[in-house]
Write a structure and sequence with these properties.
This protein has helices at 26-32, 51-60, 78-89; strands spanning 3-6, 21-23, 36-38. The protein is α+β, with helices and mostly antiparallel strands. A three-stranded antiparallel beta sheet has the order 2-1-3, with no helix packed on it.
Length: 90
Amino acid sequence: MPRVRVKTHHGWDKRHKAGDVIEVTDAEYEAFSFKFELLEEEPTGPPDATRGALELAEQHGVDLSSVRGSGPDGRIYKADVEAVIGDVTG
């Protein structure tokens, strides 16, 4: 199912407003493609992270999919995980 951003809801579905990101069926996308902006597919595999980041995240129960990586192409470094842990612990 394609992930899209709603451009306008008029004449399609009143539950969603312009700017909402939703999934639609292939048939909905084909019928109303002019009302949607197709978004790129999100990666489905595990996040790209260094070994240190993986170990630290596991020790502290941090879900790496919620960590924004500072490395090239969003690679997650140990410092990125430390920042999340610091935000949680205050």
